[in-house]
Design goal:
387 residues; alpha/beta; Rossmann fold; Arc Repressor Mutant, subunit A; 3 domains; six-stranded mixed sheet; globular
């Protein structure tokens, strides 16, 4: 009979990212266990005092500050840290969000909305927030735009949201309009939308807001509902459990870092705008978005816009630096990617829903656009057990 390994989990379940991490860990253990979990439902503060007394084979924990104490204690228990507040800790395996890809994806979404003015609202003294700010500014800068950044008030004001909200509202009011704002995470995005209301600004007409982490509850509590970058925390949990097993087996060559990838933007009303001065071009872009799953052609878009094909192509090149066909493909493939990752629909059903006669033609099209098959894409961007 296999030894039952005892694993301590110090990961909060109050947020969707924590629950997704726990789900990925549980899925790995279900296939590769048996594992027994010590998990404190009351939160990390209650869990820490008990951790030092537990007889465990491995630990996956969230609070990186406490993790360093665990390493120094010399207990020699294999540990994996799911980082959030600080940099990765030398000597311990770390799970780190790919902040660069998250912020780049958010910037590209706002640029595709036709925005030409941008800003970033982060949190002070958070390394991951700073990394997202830099990547956001780099991507908007590459497109020829300069992003403004939010400067938090002093520590005393920042400790009180009631006080900081006025400061943030004044900052938002001072920005040029319309503007696209990325918040470092969904909680901050929710605050940005609140501050917009205080400043008398309309979302998304004056300020388009996008967050990160795609916490559905937080995004739904925002008014309007907030767009966000989805991050594959479930895959991270699965890979963290896989790595912990290798460490418990004494594998000295095991990697000490897992990068959590961004998946895609989940668009919601907070960025549901198309800022294009040309109304006919706006109609064309809206037609493409509304018919992402259909096999539309350039001529269909030209008819919807009320323009000749030649004139439409010229305006597309001038306004968004892409051909009409490029835009059709981009929007279409983005929709297919979301369906592959977010649903369990068979490939054959997705092919038919996308207007293809069979899965073979669908797979050829997708491989041409993404350099991999639909099934390979699903396996890469979802946890291994689900694939």
């Amino acid at each position: 009979m296999s030894k039952i390994r005892k694993i301590a989990l110090e990961i909060e379940s109050s947020r969707s990212c924590g629950r997704s991490l726990l789900q990925g860990i549980a899925d790995y253990a279900r296939v590769h266990g048996p594992w027994f979990f010590y998990w404190e439902t009351g939160g990390l503060e209650k869990a820490w005092p008990a951790l030092s007394t537990l007889d465990v084979d491995g630990v996956i924990l969230r609070d990186v500050g406490k993790a360093e104490d665990l390493l120094v204690s010399g207990r020699g228990v294999p540990a994996i840290v799911v980082g959030h507040s600080n940099d990765d800790i030398p000597g311990i395996a770390n799970v780190i969000t790919d902040s660069s890809s998250v912020a780049t994806m958010a910037a590209e979404h706002l640029i595709e909305c036709g925005l030409r003015q941008f800003a970033f609202c982060g949190l002070p003294d958070k390394t991951w927030s700073g990394a997202r700010e830099k990547a956001f500014c780099d991507r908007t800068g590459k497109a020829g735009f300069r992003a403004q950044t939010y400067a938090s008030p002093g520590p005393a004001a920042a400790a009180s949201w009631a006080t900081e909200r006025k400061h943030m509202a004044e900052w938002l009011h001072s920005l040029p309009k319309p503007i696209g704002v990325m918040a470092c995470n969904d909680d901050r995005g929710h605050q940005v939308i609140e501050a917009c209301k205080m400043a008398g600004l309309r979302v998304p007409d004056d300020v388009s807001v996008i967050g990160a982490d795609d916490d559905e509850l937080v995004c739904s509590l925002s008014d309007p509902h907030m767009s966000s970058v989805a991050i594959n925390f479930e895959q991270a949990g699965y890979e963290a459990a896989r790595l912990l097993e290798r460490l418990m087996d004494g594998d000295a060559g095991a990697s000490n870092k897992i990068m959590v990838p961004a998946l895609h933007v989940v668009p919601r009303p907070s960025t549901d705008v198309l800022f294009v001065d040309d109304p006919q071009l706006a109609r064309a872009l809206r037609f493409i978005r509304d018919n992402a799953r259909q096999s539309i052609q350039v001529d269909d878009v030209a008819r919807a816009a009320g323009l000749s094909r030649r004139v439409l192509e010229k305006r597309f090149r001038s306004a968004i630096d892409r051909s009409v066909l490029d835009e059709i493909r981009r929007v279409r493939v983005d929709w297919i990617c979301r369906v592959l990752v977010e649903t369990n629909q068979p490939i054959s059903e997705i092919a038919l829903a996308s207007g293809y006669p069979d899965a073979l033609h669908f797979a050829r099209y997708f491989r041409r656009e993404r350099a991999m098959s639909p099934l390979e894409y699903r396996r890469k961007h979802r946890r291994a057990s689900a694939a």
